[in-house]
Amino acid sequence: MVNLRVGAVILALIGGSIFAVQSVRRFDGDARCALIPLPRNLQLGKGNFVLTPTASIEVDKRSGAVGELLASRLRRSTGYELPVRPLQNGVVPAGAIVLTTERVPAALGAEGYGLEVNAVAATIRANGESGFVYGMQTLLQLLPPRVFSPQRVTGVKWTIPCVLIQDQPRFLWRGFMLDVSRHFFSPAEVERVLDTMALHKLNIFHWHLTDDQGWRIEIKRYPRLTEVGAWRKRIGFNLDPGATSAYNAEGRYGGYYTQSDIREIMAYARVRGITVVPEIEMPGHSSAALAAQPEFSCSGGPYTTDMNEAVAPGVYCAGKEETFQFLENILAEVMELFPGGFIHIGGDEVCRSNWRNCSRCRARMAAEGLHGEADLQTYFVERIEKFIRSRGKRLVGWSEIQHVGLGQDAVLMDWIGGGVEAARTSHDIVMAPVDYCYLDFYQSKDRSREPPAAGAYLPVEKVYEFEPIPAGLDASAQAHVLGAQGNLWTEYVPSLAQAEYMAFPRLSALAEVVWSPKDSRDWRGFQRRWLVQEQRLDAMGVRYRR
Ligand code: TNX
Q: What is the rounded distance in angstroms from the CA atom of residue 388 to the CA atom of residue 146?
């Protein structure tokens, strides 16, 4: 048993006499360590560590940035001005919080951390930045929930129970997707979303930046994409125009992120251990781009962003060479902004009927020996994939790219199937099946008591039951399951308040699914711990569903 062995190593290192050796499940009802997601191994000791205004945060080279982040978080709620300083010769001052790469148990890997809290000090050990980020989140969750308040809180004794934790995630890809096209969320709102992700040790923010109803990313070479494509006449989707404040001076609904907004958000994400995966939809879901640049469609337009259906007929012309030049120029700017390794190109729900009636598309099919529009879609995605690969990035695409002869590096994101087949042909996959991961679905069967949502029903208990590894995969195919993510499509989500209502508690349940060991899953325990998570979210001002 890996857990026991690592636990024993840590105990040997610090002399574990105050720790009763008991499993994590025995303690998950203890409000003092109601952690979400549940750590791999937790032992609760006797007594507390008390954080005082004279404490310090001791860091080494790899932990300086996280140390600063921790200091600023603690400053806001406790009012303590804790100095962040280099750990001197391993000497730990009494009352300190220590973040160190020294004596890290080997089994922890890149994202793991150890946390040892005793009456004298709280020590996080990790191999690198992400481990420190997760150790910090656990430390914060062990403090009274009001530590998450953005304002100073008085009258709270800032104690942490003595614990010994060894933790690391089950999956590499622990994602959340936000659709900012159907509804626009400001940079400040996106950063709040990143805060709630960080709280849950989620590490991939999939940013759905373009779709039929709005183009949200500034592209310097094609300014019309945002001048035209970022705006629509009205909010649409039969929603109350007062539900949002995202209007411009002419009263048009929408908005976009400048490249400098994006750089700021990227920095914000990076220190929180979050990789941002941008999505630029193609060849379908592209009405907003075509409203701005109709010359890249088959018919020449016109196209509009003003539509209330999730699926619209906006499709790039696959016959014109200029289309590919246009998309590659866009992707080149996107890759500059997003240093992470993944570029999502959508690929879902392509209305191919335009192609059937287009002489250029037919000429392309003839020239390339393609039999019909489905083959043309394959050609399209393969061509873009080659471009992305030539720039050293990995393409990610929705289920519909499954028939494409993709390079080995491409990743399939399964929403309606295709994952099993892709994993069997040694492609990495991310699971986001509609049955378990669609956070735009109703949370209650009694729709009259819920805000309007997408058609289906997905209660939190069902999300909690989700198993990301599809049945029937052998061990080598299982290794291709990078992880899973929750998707928040926003046709019916016009505000951050409602996005939070749709996301929580379901995203908290999913965070445990992707982080915690499969055999530690315990719905009753999760419900008890959720009551404490509610207090943390209250302190953060997050408007979750009770
Ligand atoms: C399908 S999931 C879509 C989205 C919609 C969503 C509504 C996917 C790849 N495409 O465009 O917003 O359903 O639930």
A: 45
